[in-house]
From TrEMBL:
Name of the protein in its database record: Uncharacterized protein
């Protein structure tokens, strides 16, 4: 229905991300624009908090802020022309030690506003 959504799960005793240029990234691998339980009406998609948008047009909250019970994909947003995709899931289960000198990120996309394409 939505194509491939990005969910990375790493379970290990130790994880060392050694170099500054190293990256784990699931940005924009969630629900596509206009899709998902917290899809934006005229703004960003929601998740553990309400999405930001014009007036009350951001996506509704779903899931919970702490991510302790269940993890969901981020919902897509809605802009003047195109909304950005929601975030994918990065699930790290580290038993002992995580050393991170790089970056770990999973962000939603900004979308394309009128006149940007």
């Amino acid at each position: 229905m939505y194509g491939e959504l990005g969910h990375l799960k790493i379970k290990t005793s130790h994880l060392w991300i050694k170099h500054l240029s190293s990256k784990i990234d699931c940005s924009q691998l969630g629900y596509p624009q206009f899709c998902g339980p917290g899809k934006g009406k005229n703004g960003g998609g929601g998740y553990g908090t309400k999405g930001k948008g014009n007036g009350e047009q951001g996506g509704e909250m779903y899931g919970e802020e702490t991510l302790l019970k269940q993890i969901h994909f981020g919902s897509g947003g809605c802009g003047s022309i195109h909304g950005g995709s929601g975030s994918g899931i990065i699930e790290l289960i580290i038993e002992q030690q995580l050393i991170n000198h790089g970056s770990i990120q999973s962000n939603g996309g900004s979308g394309i506003m009128e006149g940007q394409y």
